[in-house]
Write a structure and sequence with these properties.
Layout lengths: L1 H17 L21 H13 L15 H14 L4 H18 L2 H17 L5 H13 L3 H9 L6 H13 L3 H10 L7 H13 L3 H16 L6 H17 L3 H14 L4 H13 L3 H14 L3 H13 L3 H21 L4 H9 L4 H14 L3 H13 L3 H11 L7 H13 L3 H14 L7 H12 L3 H6 L2
Helix pairs in contact: 3-4, 4-5, 4-6, 5-6, 6-7, 7-8, 8-9, 8-10, 10-11, 11-12, 12-13, 12-14, 13-14, 14-15, 14-16, 15-16, 16-17, 18-19, 18-20, 19-20, 20-21, 20-22, 21-22, 22-23, 22-24, 23-24
Amino acid sequence: MHLRILWVLVLTSLLVLFRPCDTQALSLGYTNGKLGTYSSAVQLLSVNSRQILPVKQSDLVFPDYLQRSHIIRVYEEKVAQSPSSSIFLRLLADQYLRRFREIGDIDDVLRAEQAARKSLALQPRHNQVSSMLLASALLSQHQFREALDVLNNSSVDNPNIVSLRASIQMELGDYEATHQLLQNLAQEESNSGHNAVVARYLELTGNLASARQLLDEAMQEMDSFYTTSAETRAWFHVRAGDLAFAAGDFALSEQRYREALDLFPRHIAAFTGLARLYTAQHRWQDVLNIANQGIELMPLVETLSYKTDAQLALGDQKGAAETEDLIGVVAYMSKVKGIYDRALAVYYIEHGINLTEALQIARGEVAVRDDVYAEDTLAWAAAANGQWQEAQRAAQRATRFGTEDALLQFHAGMIAFHLGKREEAIKRLTQALSLNPQFHHKYADEARQVLAHLVPTPNVMESSL
C-alpha cells in the first residue's frame, strides 16, 4: 500500500512539473471544465505503463483520487518545511484544485488561490503553471476578468495559456476574441485539452456536429493514457454526453454519462446529466434515484430541481416541498459566498416563483459573464416578468451565433411568438424540435402545441416528432 501511494505521488508530481496540469478547470461554463494536456515526458510514462500492464489501457483507471488527501498532506508538510519553495507551492495548489473538482469543497479553491499566489510571489517569472492555477482558482469563484488579467500579465505566452485565455473569453461572451486566439493556435500541435476548447467554441457558434466529432476524438485520446486522472477522463465523457443530449442522441448520452461514473464514481456532473436526460424522457423514478445519488455528493440547484420535478410527477407533494426548502438553503449559501447560480434563476422561472429575484440574478450574470447562456437566461427571466423588449434584445444576442441548443431556440421562439413575430417563432420552434424532439419535459410539448397553432398542418408536426 505504501508503495502504491508513493507511486501515485511521484506520477502526480511529474504531471505538474513536466506539463501544465488540468488548469483549465472550471473554465468551460456550467460544467467544471478539465482540459488536460500532455507533454512527451508524460506520454513516455504512459507508454511504460502500457508495456507493464497486462490489460488494455482503456479498461484501467488511474486511482489518484483515492489518495488525494494523503498527497495534499504530504505537500502541506513539504511547504511547511520549505516555505520558500515555489515548486512545492505549485504542486500543492494543483492538488487543492483537483480535490475541489473531485469533492466540491470551495475552501480548497481558496487554498489553491493562496498557494498559487505565494508561488508566483516567490517566482514571478517562468512560472506559467502557477499563473494558470491561479486563473483556474479565480474562475471557480466566477472572477472571470481577474482570471484573464492573471494570464494577460503572464510573462510567457505559451499555447496552453493562450488556450486557457480562449476559454475565459468564451465565459465572458467575447467569441470574436476567442476565434482570434484559436486561429493563432491553429498551427500548433493539437492535443486533447486544446481540442476540448475548440469543441466548446464550435458548440456555441452553431457547429454541433463538428464539436461532437472533435470532442469524441479528444475523449478517446484521453482514455489512451493511463496516467490521465480519473476525474479528468470522466469529464470528457460527461461533455460527450452533454453534446449527445443536445443532438437528441439519448442512448449515446446515457452511455457516456454511465462511462463517466465508471471512471470516477463521484462525478456530480454525470449525475446531473443523467437526471436531465431522464427528466426529458419522463422517467421519473429514474430521475429521483439518480438525483438523490448526486445530491448526496453535492446539492446543486440544478440536480435538486430535477428531483423536485420527479417528486411532483410521482405525487409526492410533501417531498417536493422539502426539496424546495433545501434549494432555498443552497441559494442562500451561494449568496453568502458571492457566487450566483443562473440555474437558480432558471428554477425560479420554470416553477413560477420568485420571478423578480430571477430577473435580478439574470441581470447580474450578464454583467459578470455575458455568454450566450447568460443572455438566454436573461431573455427568459425578462419574459417571465413581462419585460418583453428586454427579453427580445437578450434573445437576439443569445441566438446571434446560431447555437444549436434546443432550449435556447425554444426560448427565443416563444418570445417571438408573444411579440407577434410569427415567422421568427416558427423558425425557432421548428429548429428546437429538429435539434432534439425531447429537449425538455414540458417545453418540447409546448413547442409542438404553439407550432400547431401557428402552422396547423400535419407535415410540420410529423417532421418534428
